[in-house]
Amino acid sequence: MKNWQWRRMASQMPTSLDKVVLGYVRKGILNGKEVAVKQLKHGSVQGEREFLAEVEIVSPVHHKHLVSLVGYCSTEAQRMLVYEFVPNNTLEFHLHGKRQPTMDWATRLRIALGSAKGLAYLHEDCHPKIIHRDIKTANILLNYNFEAQVADFGLAKFFPDNYTHISTRIMGTFGICIKGKVTVKSDVFSFGVMLLELMTGRRPINRQSSMDESLVDWARPLLTQALEDKNFDTLVDPELQKVYNTEEMARMAACAAACVHHFAPDRPQMSQIVRALEGNISLDNLNEGSIPGHRKVYSRFGSSDYDTARYNEDMQRFRMMALASQEHGSSENSG
């Protein structure tokens, strides 16, 4: 993009939308249209890495449920990313923000389905595949119709078909680094946690408990019982006041249980999740030889220390993502 376009847009960016770890996001005007501009901190190695990842990975990607990159600016002094403007804040804001009206069940299901479609496109329709690596409610943007768009590809990676995993370092909230093996099934796990948030209204980590209890550990036995009894009242967000479609809730519960499966290869593909949420496949197809919600694996592969290690990596990774989001959200929503 031309320098004069950037100067004009910069002069029209008084509104700060958000402060992010590596910079600021502001609202601007480009060619008469509203845009969101992420200005990264100058000299940040991690910011430079994320800038290059977004430009390389997001530029050619276009889908209804993915936030589009409109342009970027790269000079010696600054790095900027310009996205289409999505006006209605994040899923985290509407689900966990203070004094926000309760989202009804139909809205929650619509958000889950839209997010699943966006993620399925990255995993199955892009070549090479793309792993997002940062799926959480803070990275799901909403328009005024509460249609979901997956955002923030700063940690995304290409995943060629001949790869079994990507070895990566995972940066945590407090600078903690975890080495781990990441696959598309890591995104599926994170999506499963997001489904649990939509169902229960709870955050992924309970900061009120002495052990920072995870939503997955809390929900697992309740999922098992609810799916067996077809009664979800003990699991569902009390703010819904039991106003929900039981069949739709069963589909989302089965999807969540399958996504957070202990054995990563048994987690479903995102296209399966899309069809299950739509009611177009049997829920039995989500679980390859395992009982939804059960920690034990009934699989021809068996279980192993390697499987447990991979699951623990997923849990550690998501715990840090969740804590980072909650630290940011608590300051943003205070007052």
Automatic annotation (TrEMBL):
EC no.?
2.7.11.1
MF terms (GO), sorted A to Z: ATP binding; protein serine/threonine kinase activity
Main subcellular localisation: membrane
The entry's keywords: ATP-binding, Cell membrane, Kinase, Membrane, Nucleotide-binding, Serine/threonine-protein kinase, Transferase, Transmembrane, Transmembrane helix
Name one matching Pfam family. PK_Tyr_Ser-Thr
| GO CC list | plasma membrane
Name of the protein in question: non-specific serine/threonine protein kinase
